[in-house]
Design a protein that fits this description.
The complex is a heterodimer of chains A (about 290) and B (about 300). Chain A is mainly α and about 290 residues long. Chain A is built from 12 helices and 5 strands. In chain A, the strands form 2 sheets. A 3-stranded antiparallel sheet of chain A has the order 2-3-4, sandwiched between helices. In chain A, a hairpin with a 5-residue loop joins β3 and β4. Chain A starts with 8 loop residues before the first helix and ends with a strand. Chain B is about 40% helix and about 15% strand. In chain B, α1 links the parallel β1 and β2. The longest helix of chain B has 29 residues. The two termini of chain B are about 30 Å apart. The chains are: A mainly alpha (about 290), B alpha/beta (about 300). Chains A and B meet through α1, α3 and α8 of A and α2, β5, β6 and α4 of B.
Chain lengths: ~290, ~300
Amino acid sequence: MPTTAKPSLPELQRWMRWVLTYPAGADHVISLPAGKAPLPKNWTRGPEPKRWLPVIGQSPEVSQGTRLAIYGDGYFIRIVDVMAGNYAVLCAVLGDHEFRHHVAREYLIKHPSIHKCIDNIGNFMPAFLEKHSASRKLPFLADLARLEWAFHESFYADEWPLLDGAAFKDVPIEKWTSARISLDPSVRLLALRHDVVNLWRDDGTWSARRLKGIKKTPTRVVVYRRPDAQVRVWTEPEASFALLKAFQTNQTFDAALRAAMKNGLSPARAMKLFSEWTSSGLIRKVAFR
Amino acid sequence: MIHGRGVNRDPFAGSPPAGVGLGLRSVHYGHILERKPQVPFFEIISENYMGTAAGAGGRPRQILDKIRSDYPIVMHGVSLSIGSVDPLEADYLKKLKALATSIEPLWVSDHFCWTGAHGENLHDLLPLPYTQETVKHVAERVKRVQDVLGRRILLENLSSYVAFEHSEMTEWECLREVAERADCLFLLDINNIHVSAVNHGFNGLDYLNGIPADRVRQMHLAGYSDMGTHLLDTHDAAVTDPVWKLFEAAVERFGAVPAMIEWDDNIPAFEQLHDEAKKAEKIQQKVLTRADNRKTVAA
């Protein structure tokens, strides 16, 4: 073999990881002197490690740069494509080009994937958008991302069996005070600053025409995957939202009721909600001490 | 058709399913559940059913469980990263094992590659240099994975665009050494052999002849894109003539090994995909009949 210097596997993989993820392109970076490539904003990988270009094979038809760029270009295209799917509404609101070529790429530079599952990429998007310039024009973007990520998480949440409400009819009332209620793992409770939930219709689809109507107003939202695997979202009044939140944070039934009553919920209404949420599957477990 | 669970849990035990299976893709869920087409097995992308950080439930698992009740399943992973210098990820292996325990696949496979390193995942199938260092590194990791899963795994050859000047052997020699050291099996991707052969200038038949026949448990077929100067493994088109020819040679060499059609982009209607599988089955039958006739004449 013509080369005398041979990289170890860790050395080769360290350099290839760097060069294949360089945003201006692997073919561009190898055209620059080693170690002289400018570091992009929010770049987390430091300067170029020792360059191992001589070990990359080439042919008269296909250069080293072209060969590396096949992987480098694919890196951004593949991951951004998945993000565009998980943030479909955000992508549509921003515009496909703006999302893919700016927001998602910049996100990936700042938050490279540490996940085995490509579908986990994007979990920092709400916080990322809080400080992104695109939010100056569309201040609801972070809330929209929060809601879409909640949809995504809800879709993949663990499955628990439905609760049989009839099993509780003989439980003495005094046992209920210390009972702890568990919501379905798919339930996400979000306190948003904008009413982005109004983008969605009752059937789960969304409407671009509703964009103009988005207002800055505190909105409490429930995201839930129904037993038929369809994920649905709705707003919940403050009092009933507080009751759900208390259940989700593992408070006793008694403490949860008191928290809800402080927000104006009557005990009778709370019991009615408890029954409805059990029937719909929102409540999945009751643990008596 | 084989419907029962527990069939061929060890790929060496019993007979493999005859014929050509298909990749299970979400666009075909409805067709498969409603019409129950005659397909010997479906191959799943393991990671699509292992859940996310949020959990491992939802529609993908519900559908898989339904389809599993009617068809054998084989598991094909893309994130094991067997060649990475990062430690094997215990949580990933735990989830992989849980999925395998739950759906009882005929076998479990992944790629001879690395997908990320130094704590980062590039979510791509990246090539390895073919060196003794790679052989030792990968073989040790395959052994550990097999210990965790309690079964031998199949390693699949890649399509690649980069070859390394410091390689000490051919790709097939490297694969063979890894398999002998780790006692693992092969999923031979015929399309990948052709793509890499064109991109790196070797003969696909040499590749086939260099692979030990007794370790090949499955074959893949797929379409690629011709970029003029090189081929791209895009899985977005029908199998091409050169790949069909190489497949014929592979059946000649490896016999009645189950094959499978991969089509992951611009996915066609189920019937078109199924027709591609039937075409592959015809080639299998033609070659195997020819081989039988030769045996009869010789006898």
